[in-house]
Specification:
The chain is α/β, with parallel strands linked by helices and about 425 residues long. The chain is built from 11 helices and 18 strands.
Length: about 425
């Protein structure tokens, strides 16, 4: 079955996380060389696996969910770009053309001192990030002032990636009433002079962070999604989560301020959409179905911290080139330093109203040939051949069966084995 694979990388927080190891290091006086020789460096282990994955399998694109650094450290941001380039050749446009790369800002990437003091230019604070990528020759791959979109295509199978800046309000100061503004500002200014940059960031800025997406960008995004045909899957990339995270979080403005309006706008597109994000340092996968718009389905896929792992999204296509489903391959590093390939998550993308698009002679004959019990691959091949007058070749029947499984018409047992060992059972209506 034809597929396209996209790599999803979550928050990196470089250089804060670059020396994180797996080990119980209580003796702080132990030589670093000895510690390095006996422990696993998390980010190095993950990056090696990403490199192996991109070299050994066909990865058609990379999405980076933001927070390349922490606390607005532009030097750390540049170090992260250098590290990604040295390890993954991220700045080589011959290996990774512009259309294959999407990077969004995270709230931790922003130096809050770069916010416009006159509150007129919401995008001034993102300019240092653009300049960082510009130095590396890749300034066009980061999304800041406007929505960015590109098409990833392979053998007429297509994904449209839209990247969106969800940090429009990040770092902006709250406008307090005039009668207390000057006094409050004086207290914060005095505190920031005596406190560390981290403590100052946490108190003054992180708690006043207001993640949001620009309404003009949302309108452009919805129009862009509605304009593409059913043979392409829209994937939206942003830093922040739209749905609340699964554990209580006591902090001001933890999710998008206009998340309700945003997800309602996505639902109005009346089609399956995948929304990829980072920020919450979790790896949840959730679906939102609007029963007023039965054709809509939004799948929210969160990437973990890079030091914990990464995702590969594999979109599989039907013989008619319509995207059938998404398989999320989860690569995770455990606390023993072992990188595991966890059970894949299969997400169907086809809604009931699209079923007529797939009703050809092979599917119809397959349903007739199947019964409530299990059938072998070869028996079904013979039965379909008798029904339509010609026996399908093995490759064609494999595609038909995998397609029918995505459509929830059949279940395949032993799918990972050779097709001659498959057992096929019809799903009762």
């Amino acid at each position: 079955m034809e597929s396209l694979k996209i790599l999803q990388i979550g928050d990196i927080h470089y250089p804060e996380k670059k020396d994180e190891v797996i080990g119980d290091i209580k003796d702080k006086s132990a030589p670093n060389s000895l510690i390095n020789a006996t422990t696993v460096h998390r980010i190095q282990r993950i990056i090696r696996e990403i490199h192996r994955t991109t070299e050994n399998s066909t990865i058609s694109g990379i999405m980076i969910c933001g927070d390349l650094t922490s606390y607005g450290d532009i030097n750390g941001y540049n170090e992260c770009i250098d590290y990604l380039n040295n390890s993954l050749e991220i700045c080589d446009d011959r290996k990774w053309p512009d259309d294959s790369l999407h990077i969004v800002p995270g709230n931790h990437d922003i130096d809050h001192n770069n916010c416009d003091p006159d509150d007129k230019d919401l995008f001034k604070k993102f300019q240092p990030l653009v300049e960082s990528w510009q130095v590396h020759g890749r300034d066009s791959i980061i999304t800041t002032k406007s929505l960015r979109s590109s098409v990833v295509n392979k053998n007429n199978h297509t994904i449209n990636i839209f990247s969106l800046n969800s940090c429009i309000g990040s770092g902006e100061k709250r406008h307090l009433p005039k009668k207390i503004r000057d006094q409050f500002e004086s207290i914060l200014t005095s505190y920031s002079k005596s406190a560390s940059s981290t403590d100052s960031f946490e108190l003054i800025y992180e708690q006043l962070d207001t993640p949001t997406v620009h309404n003009d960008h949302v309108i452009e995004l919805v129009n862009g999604i509605k304009a593409i045909g059913i043979k392409s899957l829209p994937i939206v990339l942003a830093h922040h989560n739209v749905l609340p995270q699964t554990i209580p979080r006591w902090e001001i403005y933890t999710e998008l301020v206009n998340s309700g309006q945003f997800r309602s706008s996505l639902a109005s597109c009346l089609r399956p959409i995948i929304y990829c994000h980072g920020h919450i340092h979790d790896d949840s996968i959730e679906e939102l179905i609007d029963h007023h718009n039965i054709s809509s389905k939004i799948i929210f896929i969160s990437a973990p911290l890079l030091t914990d792992g990464f995702n590969v999204l594999e979109v599989q296509f039907a013989r008619n080139e319509i995207p059938l489903g998404c398989i999320v391959h989860k690569y995770r590093l455990n606390n023993k330093g072992q990188l595991s390939y966890e059970n894949t998550i299969r997400i169907p993308l086809v809604s009931n109203d699209m079923m007529p698009e797939f009703r050809d002679e092979y599917i119809s004959s397959l349903i007739k040939a199947c019964n409530s019990g299990e059938e072998r691959f070869q028996i079904l091949r013979d039965s379909i051949g008798m029904d339509i007058g010609t026996r399908p070749n093995i490759s064609t029947l494999e595609k038909v069966l995998l397609e029918a499984e995505w459509l929830n018409l059949i279940k395949i047992t032993d799918r990972s084995c050779s097709s001659k060992h498959w057992k096929i059972r019809r799903v009762q209506p």
